């Protein structure tokens, strides 16, 4: 039962008592019933607003969860790379690839790990994260 309904019930009880509104007690009870009715209106309005805000916050939380999944790649964390994932510019030379020998270096500019195989000329190697040209030598 909403607060307005409860206030209306109390007003009906007070009216049923046929209180004399000219006496001190009658005036007090009538004023209290009016105040309860006004408070009930406010409380019901606040309950409605709170419910609307809760629904909105739940929608925002779901949307934020979707954004986090996209930005943080939460779905892909547990998957193993098959060498064709595009995790580096040289997909065939990925550190998880089973074919051929691979090399891994760290970019001195941004710290990104870069993997490549013997088919890539180390003199032409660029960091996929910061596009910095890397100078590295591969010992045979």
Please describe the structure with a list of short key phrases separated by commas or semicolons.
about 140 residues; about 5% strand
Give a verbal description of the structure.
This protein is mainly α and 140 residues long. It contains 2 helices and 2 strands; from the N terminus they run ααββ. The chain has helices at residues 3-16, 24-72; strands spanning 102-106, 113-117. The protein has a two-stranded antiparallel sheet with strand order 1-2. The N and C termini lie far apart (83 Å). The model is unreliable at 88-97 (pLDDT under 50).
β content, as a range?
5-15%
Major sheet description:
2 strands, antiparallel
Strand order of the biggest β-sheet = 1-2
Approximate shape: rod-shaped
Uncertain segments are 88-97
Determine the fraction of residues in helical runs and give it as a percent range: 40-55%
Please state the structural category.
mainly alpha
Mean pLDDT: 79
The H-and-E topology, N to C, reads as HHEE
CA distance, first residue to last residue: 83 Å
Number of strands: 2
Number of DSSP helical runs: 2
Gyration radius (Cα, Å) is 36 Å
Topology summary:
Layout: H1 3-16, H2 24-72, E1 102-106, E2 113-117
Antiparallel strand pairs: 1-2
Q: What's the short story on this structure?
A:
The chain contains 2 helices and 2 strands. It has 140 residues and is mainly alpha-helical.
């Amino acid at each position: 039962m909403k607060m307005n309904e409860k206030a209306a019930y109390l007003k009906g009880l007070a009216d049923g008592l046929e209180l004399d509104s000219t006496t001190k007690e009658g005036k007090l009870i009538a004023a209290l019933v009016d105040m309860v009715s006004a408070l009930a209106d406010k409380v019901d309005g606040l309950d409605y607003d709170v419910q609307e805000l809760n629904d909105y916050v739940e929608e925002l939380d779901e949307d934020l969860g979707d954004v986090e999944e996209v930005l943080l790649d939460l779905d892909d964390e547990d998957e193993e790379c098959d060498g064709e994932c595009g995790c580096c510019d040289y997909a065939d030379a990925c550190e998880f690839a089973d074919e051929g020998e691979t090399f891994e270096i760290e970019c001195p500019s941004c710290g990104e790990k870069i993997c490549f195989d013997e088919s890539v000329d180390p003199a032409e190697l660029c960091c996929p994260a910061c596009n910095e040209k890397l100078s590295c030598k591969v010992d045979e």
